[in-house]
Amino acid sequence: MRVVHYLNQFYGGLGGEAKAGVPLETREGAVGPGRLLEQVLGEGTKVVTTLVCGDNYAVEHQAEVTASVVEKVREARADLFVAGPCFEAGRYGMAAGALCSAVRSALGVPVITGMAEENPGADLYREALYIIDSGRSAAKMRDVLIKMASLGRKLVNKVPIGLPTEEGYLRRGLIRDQFVTKTAATRLVDMLVAKVKGEAFESEMVATSFEPIPMPPAVKDLSKAKLMLVTDGGLVPKGNPDKIEGMAATRWGAYRIEGLDDLSGEDYEISHGGYDPRFVQEDPDRLVPLDAVREMEKRGMIGKLHPEFISTSGLANPLSNTRRMGKEMVEKVKQEGVDAVILTST
Fold first, then answer.
1. Per-residue pLDDT tens for 160-210?
2. Which of 6, 196, 231, 292 is surrounded by the most beta carbons within 10 Å?
């Protein structure tokens, strides 16, 4: 079995965030986790090529990197393409999912990757791909690679794939026809009775869970409060300096508005699909109401407006990803001593 392995800059041995902008590199043979992957795949298997790319470069140049990876997998005459595992690294997971999807679609080569369930790449690609549940900790690298190798071999040999609980991959949300002895109504009542009795049972449908968020205390005196403007409508300075994606965004930006009483359409653009941006481009204050809040500040209705606004795109964004970005924004809000936030959307 000939294997091509994709790694990010960290697992490829280049370094951490300082090397996240490194373009795609090609190495002969196995690198880093690839050496262990080669071992667990067993005799007769060889990682012939390792592809290493910085996380930032991979997501900012996705079309270029994808086309290059597909061509390199073709040249290597690969029987299997492996990406990761990525654990909770969001950009890594997004790149791994996109590359696996492209390689399988363009070449028909079996693909396998691994991610934590909270990785945004998992939400985007779990229906299309087999993604081994890596969990959060890279300390489980060997266990995860064993599961990836086992499922990868089955995909190459066209062996029937078992259920997620049997193979270790994330639920894909697909329904299979299956003969059963009990009707749906009977199974439902059995689960209800087991729940009432406190007995173990397994639901056939996994409900989406939401972390409970307590209501924050009210601002006692707005005339002394420091406010900040935040939007998920995708308003960014011309040129989109932070390269915020218009869909399934993985990053956000903070932009200076100190000394401004309103926002000019000449200075901003929209990185957000799904709505007609013309009215916002004509007057960005329609999305980020700087003019109205400045007036409130001058009249003493609020104490002070923070000299930056935060922006990202909320379109088609996995819940796990929005949670991560939200927590990152909260840390900045706390550090800046902000008392309240006005959050605007499309």
1. 999 898 999 998 887 778 788 999 899 999 999 999 999 998 887 767 667
2. 6
> What tokens were used for 170?
């994330």
Show the low-confidence residues of the chain (pLDDT under 50): none
Q: Does residue 58 sit within a domain?
A: yes
Do 72 and 106 form a contact (C-beta atoms < 8 A)? no
In degrees rounded to 5, what are phi and psi of residue 199? -90, 160
The span from the CA of 55 to the CA of 92, in Å, is 6
Report how far residue 130's alpha carbon sits from residue 140's, in angstroms, rounded to the nearest whole number: 19
Query: Which pLDDT score is estimated for 66?
Result: 96
Domain that holds residue 8: 2-167
**What single DSSP character describes residue 246?**
S
Which of 167, 201, 231 is where one domain is finished? 167
Write a three-state SS string for 41-89. HCCCCEEEEEEEECHHHHHHCHHHHHHHHHHHHHHCCCCEEEECCCCCC
Surface-to-core class of residue 235, CB atoms within 10 Å of its CB (0-12 exposed, 13-18 middle, 19+ buried): buried
Q: Tokens 């009990």 — which residue?
A: 182
**Tokens of residue 252, six digits:** 């956000």
Specify the residue for token string 């043979």: 29
* CB of 26 closer than 8 Å to CB of 51: yes
Q: Does 290 map to a domain?
A: yes
Beta-carbon contacts of 328 under 8 Å, excluding residues fewer than 6 positions away, are: 252
Threshold 0.85, pTM exceeds: no
Tokens standing for residue 213: 């968020």
Whether residue 85 is preceded by a cis peptide bond, meaning omega within 30 degrees of 0, is yes
Distance CA 252, CA 234 (A): 9
Torsion of CA 184, 188, 189, 194, to 10 degrees: 140
Sequence-ordered list of residues with C-beta below 8 angstroms from that of 212, at least 6 positions apart, any chain: none
Would you put residue 15 in left (φ > 0), alpha (ψ -120 to 50) or beta?
left
* Coil/strand/helix, residue 2: strand
CATH number, domain with residue 11: 3.40.50.2300
174 C-beta neighbours (distance < 10 Å), count:
7
